[in-house]
Amino acid sequence: MSDDRPAPAPAARRRSRSIRAKLVSLTLLANLAGLVVAIFVARTLRGGLLGGSDTLWMASYYGAMVVVALFDAFLVDELVFGGNFRRAYLEGKDARQLERGGDDEAFAASMRPQGRTFPVVVVVCGLLTYFVFNLANDDFDSYYRTVGTHVAKLRSGTPEEQQAAVAQLSIRRGPHVMPALIQALHGEGPAAPWAAWALGRFHDLPTRHPVVTPLVGAMRSSNPAVRREALVALGRLQHRPAASAIHEEIRAQLAAGQTVDPRLMYALGSIQVLSSVPLLEELLHGADEETQRLAAWALAQHRDQRGGRAVVEVLEKRLPSASLPVRCAIVHGLGILADERSNFALMQAYDDATPDELGTLCDRITIHFRPDGGDDTALLLRPERKLGMKVVLAMGQMRATSADVRAAVEPWIIEVAANAPLPEIREGGQSLLAGIRGQRDDAKAKSVDQALGLEEGP
Fold this sequence. Notes:
Mean pLDDT: 83
Oligomer: single chain
Helix content: over 70%
Order of helices and strands: HHHHHHHHHHHHHHHHHHHHEEHHHH
Low-confidence stretches: 92-111, 441-458
């Protein structure tokens, strides 16, 4: 009896089923292990818990994806195509061997173009694996392209690369970038001041506590740059307990003969605590011109605080003796405060100004928050108008409703509307007069108009 006779078909089928069962088990284990590796790597990188390069971690992430895709492809080849790729390319069996073995199913599968089928299966399985991994990791691949690469530079790049990375992360404000920025802030390295600046941009988050806490620690840093950026950031976040530290920082600059950082002035205007008023008044009278303008703006921001109306008198007293740019800022501030009795101070400021001054444009102030002065700005004292028009606009914001105030304001506006040196001021005066008359109480308006000679008596 010959030893090379074909094996019975049932034995071949049993062997095929055994291979399939083993392949199913191995594929399930590979998928589970790959998913565990992917989740671990993704969470570790998201949490910013690594040191050095991410290359090996990302290689393990995508390596696990490739391994899972290959196991899945072999299983699909086994279940759908009868394992023709495994038999033909891994076991080296050709159609004659399969025919002699009596495995009709395998013989039929071997006749298919397995060389072209399997690569397509691998690609399809790879795409499915990619989708599943990203679904399980909350779109980690997209996160790493937009955020993770910058986090890696923040950990291991040059100082310039770290600063550029912080700038990119600051654009993507959100909870998922905070761990890396906080870690950079605590590191006190070259990126620490930039990290403080970036955290200050998180003012639109639903809760600010995770951002405020590390900044409060940083404002006590021995590094002047870190301390300064932390104070500015806390000001932008309107963290009121930082006001006293900002006061100290400003006074230290003055004592050193330095120009006050305009961002610190902006911080006081944002925090809005009445304890800042004495310092702002001091700056309004004795600092450089730009700081005086910022002090006028910051004082006006206290309008909504209890007792904040006291700043009206501070601005009014400074108005007559201020330089032209500072007068522009004070007029703007009085318009924000909208105290009706400021009409008198504004009329006096207009009357004291020369025609050239009335036609001078009141410039805005641009605050650059980024440490290198780059993009990230706030524009103050807008709209930009000529001084005469600024006065008219400010009076329009506060209006004149009390009889004694209107008794002085309306004749003055009539004069301005008729004789102002610029057409736009005349038009603004006419509009202001119409607005005041439109809002006053009709029962009192008639008697006032009679007193002003604007209407004949009964």
